[in-house]
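BACKBONE STRUCTURE TOKENS:
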Amino acid sequence: MFRKNEQHRQKSFFSAQGLLPAKLRDRLLASWAEAFYQLVLCRIDETIFAPLYSEKASRPNVPVNVLVGLEILKSGFGWSDEVLYQQVCFNLQVRHALGLHDLRAEVFTLRTLYNFRGRIRDYAEETGINLMEKVFEQITDEHLQMVAVATGWQRMDSSQILSNLAEMSRLELLVAVLQAVYKQLPDGAQASWGERWSVYLEGRPHQVCYKIPNAEAKEHLITIGQELSAVETALTEQTSDSDALALVKRVLEEQYERGTDGIVRLRPGEEISAGSLQSPHDHDATYRVKGGKRFRGGYVINVSETADPENVIQLITDVQVEPNQTDDAKLMEQSLDDQAERKIEVDRVTTDGGYTGPQGEAACDKHHVELRATRMRGGHSAANTWGWEEYTWEVDEEGIPVCVTCPQNCEADLVPGRAEGRFIARFDPECCADCPFLNNLCRVQDRPRVGPTLYVQARTVEVAQQRQALHPEDTSIRVLAESTVRSLKRAFPNNKLPVRGLVRSRMMIYPAAVMVNLRRLHRYFREMAQNASQAAAFSLSSARNAVCRHFDRVCRRLSRHPLVCPARQAIASLS
């Protein structure tokens, strides 16, 4: 039965705060723990978790905001579950942050937290709603309003992160698949299939493959394909829908070819898609090569944060977690859609070249957002040819090219070519006659009978104009997003998550983003308090100095008074 947690608002006489000495109590209230309690725990909307619990009268749930707070602390500090539990039991700051003020209260077991995670995962898989994402959005929206952060100008950056998987060769992967299928077979079928697969079931995949000579690896790959095909037929006769059958079908489709004769043949490595299965333990993780590095079995994180220089603080506004082969432009489209749904106004976005292209441009046009890219996707022109951005292009109201001017100021009209989207420009022969760049650096070609001619596509003109409109001056603004991504991933050593699966990965990343924003808010409010304290001390000192100066002036005036001077002279004579 679901019940909101209101007990933390009632302070206990035996609370840590009440038992600490004054100095330590002040330090506790100035630490991150108080900021977490006020800015995170007290703001969590627990009602969105009500569908996870029974509506029947039963034992009340463990406080939801405490369980969510534990997930945020785990992702923010990179604690294991065992360390997290130790912190809850014995760390006064952690207990204060979670509103566990009464030191006599019993602490729930880790099994409660495991069950809570399982409910969130199952709910996400059934409905497509990740409740940890909803918590991040709700808390972030309140923080943006509280500090009055301008969200119009934002920056984005993406980064790769690995799932908690071992990197496997092709043979290790297929052995692991065979072992996973074996574990999911009915008890009656395991005995017969176990005898056929005995050589592949003796130890972990890497232990099995270690015993196989390299010269025999291909033979074993084909054998495993034949065995998967055989077990597919057997499973199909028993049931048309099972996790084991779905796994077998996917692997056969991605790794093998089946001819009309029914014989299974191994696919060449270059034909295997980057979206193919990387591990039977994580069906969502994919493969990607980025920046010359291979990311086998991972995800991509896209972070959006405010970037207006006038803001006193910059906060993360949105996060996406997808399989790592997802294009950056697609991630930007998701971010703009999500923020529009949350009524966050975005006017311009500063990115690197990975977000440019037709999809990214369409996403920005959809939400009337200016894309301020510092670089452009795609290669540059050859060194012996001028880039298309060196030419000046004029387009009409519908975006159709109508005129072009070369770098030597020769102008020509653009007329449609025979194919759709192609244009031709005929330059004046006299203008190009003395040009030293004709048929050299210039893209204009001197054609017989028709004279200097330029052939161009509409998309080429569009990209050239975008290159001319790049904003390299925004580089110093954009690179700060890289620092934000590093802050988000700093709790995950070796760039690897401690979990598997897309849903669980999201359940780790969204709380980590909450913690990044909290640290920034805590630092901001602490600096405000320090400045206010310094200002108050300065005001008190100024007032004290003013009183002293006034007293000195009064004393000087009294020293000149006729009744005071004899007395001062008498006192001086006695001394």
